[in-house]
From TrEMBL:
Transmembrane segments: none annotated. GO terms for molecular function: phosphatase activity. SUPFAM superfamilies: Metallo-dependent phosphatases. It comes from Nostocoides australiense Ben110. One of its GO terms (cellular component) is cytoplasm. This is Calcineurin-like phosphoesterase domain-containing protein. Pfam families: Metallophos (PF00149). Residues 9-137 form the Calcineurin-like phosphoesterase domain.
Length: 279
């Protein structure tokens, strides 16, 4: 049979941080039925990692995502965040909260089965965008990835590095070391001081979408002191998104900044695209 082109919605969901009720509310808005465990046929979800910790229902979040991963693997793309890596890869930080052995086992299975990835690519009106948990800095792109110009090649290389257990993927940065690390890995880059700052004055080879942190503190309604000068940043307060426009493209941040309590104003970042299917 000949391939058909199908219009898709790509919904990139930021850090969930254990807030099950907020995740299910957003999935309903996107047309999913969390109770029945179904997704609308046109929807592809990309979750940027950090499903767990901080909020009250990490175990329920993992169970829900595990259901979607197992029943609709082509429609739920799960990326690894530094909090999932705490259980799936070598630990590089301490965390005081406990989650169930069942949730830990599920996340480890995602990683070892190759279901949970380091990176993916989503289409957008301005070009294909690389999606990772925390973003790829200019020095990491240049020195660790060989300045690959294509986001698909970068995603493939990052996923290969993850499968091979390369430590560079989890190379810690300012959040753990209290100093800016230019080649910080894509699980740990701080949005302002490491990710965006590294690209100011350089041309972006492709746009990016990331979670993990933000230039703007959504909980306190204030800019973080690490925001670099020379960066043009647009805030979408209703969605909890920030878009940094740089030479060559954009860097879109989708981390809503959930703490023990969820940030009330947030949504998935949604893009339209097409994919091939056989009819």
């Amino acid at each position: 049979m000949s391939p058909m082109t199908i219009e898709r919605r790509y919904a990139v969901i930021g850090d969930v941080a254990g807030h099950y009720a907020d995740l299910t509310q957003e999935l309903r808005r996107l047309g999913a039925d969390p109770e029945a465990g179904t997704l609308p046929p046109d929807l592809i979800v990309v979750q940027v990692g950090d499903l767990i910790h901080r909020g009250p229902q990490s175990d329920a979040v993992v169970a829900l995502v595990d259901h979607f991963i197992r029943t609709a693997p082509q429609q739920w793309i799960q990326l690894i965040g530094n909090h999932e890596a705490h259980y799936a890869r070598a630990q590089v930080f301490e965390w005081h909260e406990q989650i169930s052995a069942r949730a830990i086992s599920a996340m480890r299975a995602w990683w070892h089965e190759g279901i949970m990835q380091v990176a993916t690519v989503v289409p957008s009106a301005t070009g294909d965008l690389l999606v990772t948990h925390a973003g790829v800095t200019e020095p990491f792109w240049r020195e660790d990835l060989g300045a690959l110009p294509d986001p698909y090649a970068v995603a493939e290389r990052l996923n290969q590095m993850g499968r091979l257990g390369r430590k560079a993927v989890s190379r810690p940065g300012e959040m753990l070391t209290d100093r800016v690390v230019p080649r910080v890995g894509p699980l740990w880059a701080s949005a302002g001081s490491e990710l965006v700052a590294s690209w100011v004055g350089h041309r972006l080879p492709f746009g990016q979408v990331h979670g993990h942190s933000s230039c703007y503190d959504w909980q306190r309604s204030a800019w973080r002191p690490s925001v670099p000068s020379g960066a043009h940043i647009h805030l979408d307060h209703d969605a909890g998104h920030e878009t940094v426009t740089l030479d060559g493209g954009v860097i879109i941040g989708v981390d809503p900044g959930h703490g023990a309590r969820a940030h009330t104003a947030w949504r998935a970042w949604v893009s339209q695209g097409t994919s091939a299917s056989r009819g």
